[in-house]
Every structure is written in C-alpha cells, then in structure tokens.
Amino acid sequence: QGASSLDISSLTRQTGLTTLDNGFVNTASTKSAITFIDGDKGILRYRGYPIEQLAQHSSYLEVAWLLIYGELPTADQLATFDETIRRHTLLHEDLRRFFDAVPHTAHPMTTLSSAVSALATYYEDVLDPNDPEAVEASTIRLLAKLPVIAAFAYKKTIGQAMLYPDNSLSFVDNFLRLNFGTMAEPYQVDPIVSKALERLLILHEDHEQNASASTVRLVASTEANMFVSISAGIAALSGPLHGGANEAVLTMLARIRDSGESVSTFVERVKKKEEGVRLMGFGHRVYKSYDPRARLVKESADEVLDGLGVHDPLLDLARELEQIALEDDYFIERRLYPNVDFYTGVLYRAMGFPPRMFTVLFAIGRLPGWIAHWRESNADATTKIGRPQQLYVGPAERDLGR
Ligand code: ACO
C-alpha cells in the first residue's frame, strides 16, 4: 500500500548531505499504523476500515477506541470505555475559575489550548509518559474533559453561566447540552443535530501526519506529557491553513454575500492571487482528488438542513463556488478540490454554533487521533527526539570589533 521509501539517516551519516524539504512535502517523519490515505484516489481508512463505513455505522467513542487501541472494541469494552469517560467529565473547581481570568473576547481555540495545558497542572503525579497507568489516565481525562472545556470556552464568549455535565447523556448529547442548555430551562437534544455532529466528529478523528498530529508527535518525542503535547496540537490546528479553515470558509462566504460581488468575480480574484485571497476550504497537501470527507459532509448538508427546516443562502453560495471552481482550469491544473472544511461550517452554523467555535469542534473530533499518535510515538522504542536540520543562510562569522 505504501509508496517506496528511503531511510535517509544512514545516507546522511555516510555522505554528510542534508536534504531541504520545505513544508515536509516529501519527507516521512515516522512510520505509522493508524491511518491510511491515498490522496490520488481519495481513500481514507482508520486502522484499515474505510471512513465511509465508520461514518455510517460507528460512534465517536467506538472510532476513538479503534484509533487508540488498534482494533474495534467489543460491546463490553465499549460500554466500559463510555462509562469511564462519563465518570471523568468534571473539572476541578479551581480550573473552572481559570475561565474567570480569560477575557470574553478571547478566541475559544486559544482558551482551549491554554486550558488543556492548565489541566496538566492538576495531575502532576500521573503524567509520566513511561508509566502505562498514567498514559491510560491521561487518555480518559482528555477525552472526557476536552468537550467540557470547549463548552466553557463558548459560554465565556456569550456571557452565560457554565453548566455542569450531565453524565446520564451520551458523549455528543452531553456536549450539545453544555453549549446550548441554560440554567433557566431544561434542554432537549435534537436527534438530527446529535446524529449529524457525531458523524462530523468521526470524519475528523484522524488524518495521519498533518500539521497538528506532527506537532503532537514532535512534542511527544521529547517525552513531554500527553496534555501539553495535545495543547500544542490544538495551537497548530488553530491556524487558517489547517483547522481554522472551517471558520475562514464561512467568513469568506459571508463576505461574498455582503459585498454583492458575484461568485465568478471572486473566483477571478482568487486566480489572480490577490493579496490574502484564497478559495478557503479548497486544496489539500495530500488529496489531489475529491476529499472523501468533504463528499460525506456535502451529503449530510442537504439532509441536515432539510431536517432542521433551515434554508441557508451561504450553502447555495458554497455550491455555486464549487461548481465554478471544479470547471475552471486554474483549479483543475492544480488539482484543487473541496476539502473537509468547505461544507462543515454551513452545517455547524445550522446546528447553532457561531463561527469561532468551528475549529473547536474540529479539535474535539481530532482528539482521539492526536492521542493515538502520541501513544504510538511514545510506545515506539525507536522514536528519536524530533530535530529537523536547517540550511544556514545567515552571515558568515563577523567580528564585534570591541
Ligand atoms: N485557492 C487558490 N489557490 C490555491 C489554493 C486555494 N485554496 N490552494 C492552493 N492553491 C494554489 C497555490 O497558489 C499554488 O499555485 P501555484 O502553483 O501557481 O503557485 C498551488 O495551488 C499549490 O498550492 P500550495 O500552497 O503549494 O499547496 P500546499 O500543499 O502547500 O497547501 C493548503 C495546501 C494549505 C491546504 C492550500 O491548498 C490552502 O491554503 N488551502 C486553503 C486553506 C484550507 O482550506 N485549508 C484546510 C486544509 S484541510 C485541513 O487542514 C483540515
């Protein structure tokens, strides 16, 4: 399945040569058994299982187990996993007060990354990467508490009281209630929203050595604990060229709508590479055909918006943009297709999430993948500290002259 490869380390030692690979376009940083992608054929598999099957028939926690432990759980294993995660949702009360110190204007991704680092400070005795029990405890704590932190970060931005988790609810329903429930009224989860969110989370669970997973592995390679490694992954995900693209897509669509500019004029500006103008949600380092996740999200978009009785003109705009781009030579020659972020924003918006929460939802989805990468790297005795080379292009030796 894999392409041919060359282990460069012995060659480097023998020849003293260094390869420059800007953006790691060609250099594999690791071997991995978690996720397989064929970017030309548009194939994505977690531990060998096609994403289409998992999105259709699995739950977020079942896929999390699969990614982390390598096999599908038995019914008993899944039930115990689910129950253990439900029992670990509470945050220390002092950590709850962490949110008092964050301005309500803070981007929730920044809050999320900071709070996950802060979470590590409560578990100093159980952080050792070489202690299997600590690794299990960190896995459960992160899976259970990240959604709560995420919902707290959201409540902070809208000035509402934070709710305590309701552990009688499923993972996804608990999360929805923490975001949209209030102290004033009981909250009823809409099954259409719950099902759609579960599906979107599954689609995001892993994507091999992207910028955030690679960041997690790089930090893990220093034997740093799982919490701070994941916090670094969240920071990497926040950028608009990575997970932040889902928010950027919606901003782009809203700008086009508000400016009154036609879609084709906007596409012309993209092609001229006007400063800061890209077709957000298009293009991918690995997929040179339609991103299979984008196909599944696009299918869900109609279903969910119809089910919720929402008509969103931004979805019409997105469809028009896609249609024009897919027939345009600029995009055809460069093999630019919609990626997972192109349609997700429209769906999140229909569910009631504001754009600033979109990347946070991505982070919750991606967490099992980051944990799987951290654990794979940590368990591999051949892992070396990640330490890229550079080609120095600065001044030769100079004399301070004093
Ligand atoms: N709009 C317009 N042109 C584009 C786009 C785009 N979205 N993406 C790539 N191109 C063009 C580049 O300008 C370049 O053109 P050139 O050959 O004339 O110089 C060519 O396509 C190749 O692009 P690169 O930037 O070299 O591709 P790279 O693999 O480095 O970047 C990336 C991939 C970052 C995803 C890029 O396609 C992009 O910026 N897309 C928009 C942001 C986005 O949607 N990110 C989400 C990615 S998926 C994810 O992280 C979950």
UniProtKB/TrEMBL annotation:
The keyword Acyltransferase applies. It catalyses: oxaloacetate + acetyl-CoA + H2O = citrate + CoA + H(+). It comes from Amnibacterium endophyticum. Pathway: Carbohydrate metabolism; tricarboxylic acid cycle; isocitrate from oxaloacetate: step 1/2. It comes from the Bacteria. The lineage of its organism: Bacteria, Bacillati, Actinomycetota, Actinomycetes, Micrococcales. Keywords: Acyltransferase, Transferase, Tricarboxylic acid cycle. Belongs to the citrate synthase family. Pfam families: Citrate_synt (PF00285). This is Citrate synthase. GO terms for molecular function: citrate synthase activity.
